[in-house]
Description:
Radius of gyration: 21 Å
Number of helices: 2
Strand order of the largest sheet: 2-1-3
Helix content: 10-25%
Largest sheet: 3 strands, antiparallel
Number of strands: 3
Order of helices and strands: EEEHH
Distance between the termini: 45 Å
Amino acid sequence: MPIYEYACEACGHRHEAMQKMSDAPLTDCPACGKPELRKLVSAAGFRLSGGGWYETDFKKDGKKNIAEKESTKAAGACGGGACPACE
Length: 87
């Protein structure tokens, strides 16, 4: 089940709720009780990287693994070919 983030427009309280995607958005603030709760848009807290079904079944033409690019960056290379470490 996804976790949704809400903010109250009346008191500024921020709230997270685990809900089904089919559930109606919450409206009443748990802090002040007013019906001013609004759902916020936020980024996912994880990213899939490394080997797995996407890497092995859907990649084409030698595209590189995202984890492989990150290890290059961690070693001090920018990956763009513009610095001495990338040449």
